[in-house]
Amino acid sequence: MLDRTFIGRTSEPVTVEVERGHIRRFAEAIGDPNPIYASLEAARAAGLPDIPAPPTFVTALFAGDVRAGMGIDVRKLLHGEESYEYRRPLYAGDRLTLTQRVADIYEKPGKAGVMDFLVLETTATDATGALVYRARRTVIIKR
Amino acid sequence: MTRARLSELSVGLALPTLTKPPIERIQLVRYAGASGDFNRIHVEEGYAQAAGYKGVFAHGMLVMGFFGQLLTNWLGTPAPIARLSCRFRALTWPGDVLTISGRVSALIDDTEPRRATLALEATNQDGMVVADGSAEITRTD
């Protein structure tokens, strides 16, 4: 089973920039044809300061990997749940500082036996230190 | 595009449904690249099979991305979303056709700004719910 002493482990903060091309490729991968993700002119015509990010784009911002060294076999991983709390929309050009933390580790019986659950929380702040979003991911690890 | 008038929502109101084209393997490769999730289980058949699956399957986050698309189709971009959550219930395979639906589940009028919660669901061509979730939107207009 996963070692519960990893709870509270926190990654080194990473500063990332939201990039226009990254947003466009992300929207293309989802298959969202909204031109606002690909065209600065379309975004500005809609009164926006820059190209906006789709709601789940935050998953594409790399927050460091707090799982490193925890001995997790990625072939046994399943994504259980994901949740986001947003304080404001994200736009290309935003610079964010991301920190990831192991929020919880627990085990629960499932159909295929006992499974381990790992809860990761990522917080993103702007240059003033204000919270921009918080992400919570529950990963299931089959034994 | 007709946008939702957030001041005129009612509980039970259904969002316009989004039906996605069949999931393609190349889409999983694109999503891996765009999201930075390079778990080989989503892009390499042999690797997925060695891990005990019939083949590659979609990133859960791709399906959650469809929830995002449902909301921005309805609310415009950027959508006034305060919270978005998703629970993954079954795997999605290449060739699957997902239908994304949502409805207003509650109106919260004792907060400022006022809010509404939405119940979201992704269903495959066999009628199986592969993901469900919820969103909380602000009603500022």
Number of helices of chain A: 2
In terms of DSSP E residues, the strand content of chain A is 35-45%
DSSP summary, beta strand count of chain B:
5
Q: Provide the residue-averaged pLDDT of chain A.
A: 95
Quote the distance from N terminus to C terminus of chain A.
8 Å
Strand line-up across the major sheet of chain A? 1-3-4-5-2
What fraction of residues of chain B sit in β-strands? 25-35%
**Helix content range of the residues of chain A, please?**
10-25%
Count of separate DSSP helical elements of chain B: 3
Greatest interface by residues involved? A-B, 37 and 41 residues
Give the oligomeric state: heterodimer
Helix residue percentage of chain B: 10-25%
Order of helices and strands of chain B: EHHHEEEE
Give the radius of gyration of chain B.
Answer: 17 Å
Main β sheet profile of chain B? 5 strands, antiparallel
Helices and strands of chain A, in order, run as EHHEEEE
Low-confidence spans of chain B: none
What strand order characterises the main sheet of chain B?
Answer: 1-3-4-5-2
The average pLDDT score of chain B comes to: 93
- Specify the biggest β-sheet of chain A: 5 strands, antiparallel
Shape of chain B: elongated
Summarize the SSE layout with pairings:
The complex is a heterodimer of chains A (143) and B (141).
Chain A: E1 14-17, H1 20-30, H2 40-45, E2 77-86, E3 95-110, E4 113-125, E5 131-142
Antiparallel strand pairs in A: 1-3, 2-5, 3-4, 4-5
Chain B: E1 18-19, H1 25-35, H2 45-50, H3 60-75, E2 81-88, E3 99-108, E4 114-123, E5 129-139
Antiparallel strand pairs in B: 1-3, 2-5, 3-4, 4-5
